[in-house]
């Protein structure tokens, strides 16, 4: 090899030929995290630091969920009432078309009516 040219050094490559074996660069020793910080026992010995280690970050949307709970409860109740009203209208329209099932449709409409009153009472209690 020429001494006046650039010198080749291998950091990650392991040369196969014997003449290039001496050009390898020694890998630097990197201290582990435990060596840098010390043992974990030393971290846990301090009683004032223990609560800081147990803290878990809150989810970023926890306050949004809390604030939306009441409006969503009202919206769910309104949706249920609308569904019940649609069912009642369908039952009434079917009752008008099929006179043979008069008694059955009236019972279903009464049951839907009663369920709507129960839902309204529960909403008023909340």
Characterize the structure shown.
- The protein is mostly helical.
- It has a domain at 62-125.
- It contains five helices and no strands.
- Helix 4 packs antiparallel against helix 5 (102-125).
- The protein is elongated.
- It comes from Coccolithus braarudii.
Keywords:
126 residues; mainly alpha; 5 helices
Q: Which descriptor suits the 3D outline?
A: elongated
Question: Using only CA atoms, what is the Rg?
Answer: 38 Å
Helix content: 55-70%
User: Order of SSEs, N→C?
Assistant: HHHHH
Number of helices: 5
Number of strands: 0
As residue ranges, the low-confidence spans are none
Could you tell me how far the N terminus lies from the C terminus, measured between alpha carbons in angstroms? 89 Å
Sheet/helix structural class:
mainly alpha
Biggest pleated-sheet summary: none
How much strand content do the residues show? under 5%
Mean pLDDT level: 78
Oligomer: single chain
Biased composition (Basic and acidic residues): 92-105
GO cellular component, one term: post-mRNA release spliceosomal complex
Region (Disordered): 92-126
Pfam families: cwf18
Any chance you could write out the topology, listing elements then pairs?
Elements (H helix, E strand, L loop, with lengths): L32 H5 L2 H6 L4 H5 L7 H36 L4 H24 L1
